[in-house]
Amino acid sequence: MSQSSFRYTFRPGENIREEFLRLLALLSAQTSRLVPCPPQVLPESIHYARTLIKRTRSFLWFGRSVLGPVASIRLRRRLRNAAQFLAASRDRTAIQSTLKKLAQDTSSSRDREALALFAVILMEKPTKFGASVKSLHDPLLKAVQFLLRALEEMSQIAVASTLPWPDPSERLAKAFRVVRKVGKKAQHMGTDFQFHEWRKKAKRLLHQLELIHDPSDKRSLRTIKHVDRLQEKLGDYHDCVVVQDRLRKLFKMYPQTTRLIALLEKRKKHLGKKAQKLRTLFK
Q1: Residue 219: what pLDDT?
Q2: Residue closest to 16 by CA, chosen among 164, 175, 150
Q3: What span, in angstroms and rounded, lies between the C-alpha atoms of 46 and 133?
Q4: Residue 67 burial by CB count (10 A; 0-12/13-18/19+): exposed, middle or buried?
Q5: Other CB atoms closer than 10 Å to residue 165's CB: what's the count?
Q6: Are residues 213 and 140 located together in one domain of the fold?
Q7: What is the model's pLDDT at position 111?
Q8: Cβ(155)–Cβ(25) below 8 Å
Q9: Mean pLDDT of successive 10-residue segments in the chain (283 residues)?
């Protein structure tokens, strides 16, 4: 857990509206620094942009009652579009990382050779998996523009609104309830879709925990670290799904594809069990 995450925390005893606006301004400042972006740091900038989009989504969820249903829907769409510009880069990174982890976990030389083959294909023909690094500057710029517009609109509505602000503790309790409910569905149904929903809700819970984090409360920090581990396992699970999807669509005729899909399925089951074990610690 990075200490920089706690920059986005309400200061104790301060007005919620003012703190909300302060943190939106911080998000805007961090977003503006992403462009122009030198080529050597482009992958890191894209990753950070995705992080800022997710955090903005968590702020939107927190202040939904103040921002209103119509504006919330419009803002969610804008943030979804911002994330979509960076989806190709995200998938490419997920595929690289997952193939590397599979190679480390398997003892079969034949499987390692197959994984190495697909890793080479990924690097030599990146358009099959998403855009190459060099072509990602324009999508980053567009994502930044969409995110800045969303943050500006959120700030404007928050300034003008006379509606009461939500209690942070109540929103946190709601986030916990949603994660428990979705996690239970994932356990019973076991579908990739349910695990994907669980991952998104766990990430939102993590951001809500960070939002009201008390540095003097060790229990709070333990909970944050626990939820962070949960969403990390669920993120790895989703990466496996991404790779399986690409293999089925693009490399169905390769003899190694069936074996690799089976390896990914085995890894998903392992990660699913890890996630369910973590879920039981905060029922």
Answers
A1: 87
A2: 164
A3: 10
A4: buried
A5: 17
A6: no
A7: 82
A8: yes
A9: 73 94 97 87 90 96 96 96 91 86 84 78 53 66 96 97 95 95 91 95 95 84 93 95 87 81 93 91 65
Amino acid occupying residue 34: L
Q: Are 181 and 43 in contact (CB under 8 A)?
A: no
What letter represents residue 104's amino acid?
Answer: Q
Residue 110 and residue 193: Cα distance in Å, rounded? 31
Q: Is-contact 241 198, C-beta < 8 A?
A: no
Let me know whether 218 and 144 are in one domain.
Answer: no
Predicted TM-score (pTM) of this structure: 0.89
Give which of 260, 266, 159, 228 is closest to 3, Cα–Cα: 228
Q: Other CB atoms closer than 10 Å to residue 281's CB: what's the count?
A: 12
Sign, CA torsion 235/9/30/204: positive
Q: What is the pLDDT of residue 166?
A: 96
Asked if 161 and 174 sit in the same domain, the reply is: no
Residue 252: predicted pLDDT: 76
Statement to judge: residues 107 and 144 lie in one domain: yes
pLDDT for 126:
47
Q: Please report whether residue 6 resides in a domain.
A: no
Helix ranges (H only) for the chain are 16-32, 42-62, 64-67, 69-85, 87-105, 109-124, 137-160, 168-189, 192-211, 218-250, 257-279
* Phi, psi angles (nearest 5°) of residue 93: -65, -40
The Cα–Cα gap between 143 and 89 comes to 12
Q: How far is CA 45 from CA 35, 140, 207, 236, in A?
A: 9, 8, 20, 21
Range of the domain at 216: 167-283
